[in-house]
Amino acid sequence: MLSLAILIAGAVAVAYQVTALLACLIHWAVARLRYRKPPSSPKPPISILKPVRGLDSGFAAAIRSHVEQDYPEYEILFGVRDLEDPAVPAIRALIESYPKRTIRLVHCTADAPNGKVAILQELEKHARHSVLLVNDADITVPRDYLARVVAPLEAKETGVVTCLYRATAASVAGQWEALGIATDFIPSTLVAPLVGVKEFGLGSTLCFRAEDLKAIGGFEVLKEYIADDYQLAKRITQLGRQSFLSEVTVSTTLSDPDWLSVWRHQLRWARTIRVSRGGGYLGLPVTHAGLWALLSILTGHYSMAVVVLVARISMGLTGGFLVLRHWPAVFAAPLIPLWDLWAFLVWLAALTGRTIHWRNRVTELLPDGRMKQPD
């Protein structure tokens, strides 16, 4: 009976990998078609809101890429809790280097369980334009980023535009996490729309109308949630809008220096998914094809193990290299199934418990995805 169950689970795992591979191919093809056309002509002014805390690797290059956009009118608002933050000198140097650009550094003193949202609340008060764009501080973007990301908002049914991202890292542990992002997390994001998930949104980019933000209650309603990007996209789509996945892929740098940091980061993600989408979380092991390949080998189903491994590596290469151009996915392809074993261990660890390590403090998650107020 156990042998049959593993055989069935292996078949389901293969079916998921094939679905993810098709999702990756569809996105790749659609993105190529969109890139053949220049962005549409209307280019509304944009306010870029960038909460900043700490100086991540590649930060200076990341913020410079926002200043060098081929776009007629936009402003960049950087928000920090502390003017002694190590990122402040880089921001001030940027302002001095580009005097013709509208760039402001805002000292944000408000507090909230989600410190990032507390900063966004204050930045939004200073924003002058009707289109807002929020992305993480360490995101590096191409020159046509703004033009392409804002274009889908021409359609009234589009409520929020988001982007895929590729990750790089200096540490070995960080490179391991980057491999998982490219070959596991991003493909699962591409599967989501195919299975009816409408409220997807990634912190790498969230572009939306100020009026829609106001309609959902502003950033105020997000200040207690750990997954503020997911909550924002969810609430905007509940207005009857759609979430749109742009053809643009941005880049980020992972700063976790060691394996413990990566483990805590992954555990935070997993517990965030569990409290945000509990039903979906329980089904995640079906995506861990490397686990089912190992169990197939242990129960003597060698042919199934080969099929599972081929499907998994093919999907990982398609998502990691073809879609994201993440070169390490090619060189580390044999390690992709091993990532699944790691991911399964993270899944098990996150199945219970609500404690997370975030921004140098320990926080407890509530069952609805909010963070417990500190005592």
Assign the CATH architecture of the largest domain: Alpha-Beta Complex
Strand/helix succession: HEHEHEHEHEHEHHEHHHHHHEE
Domains, number: 2
Average pLDDT level: 92
Q: What is the level 1 CATH name of the largest domain?
A: Alpha Beta
Report on the biggest sheet.
7 strands, mixed
Strand line-up across the major sheet = 3-2-1-4-6-5-7
Strand share of the residues?
15-25%
Written description of the protein model:
- It is globular and about 65 Å long.
- By secondary structure, it is an alpha/beta fold.
- It has helices spanning 2-35, 59-67, 88-97, 115-126, 145-150, 172-194, 210-215, 228-237, 259-276, 278-282, 289-298, 302-323, 328-331, 336-350; strands at residues 46-51, 74-80, 102-107, 131-134, 158-169, 206-209, 242-254, 355-358, 361-364.
- It starts with a helix and ends in an 11-residue tail after the last strand.
- The protein has 14 helices and nine strands.
- The strands form two sheets. Strands 3-2-1-4-6-5-7 form a seven-stranded mixed beta sheet, with helices on both faces. Strands 8-9 form a two-stranded antiparallel sheet.
- It is 49% helix and 16% strand.
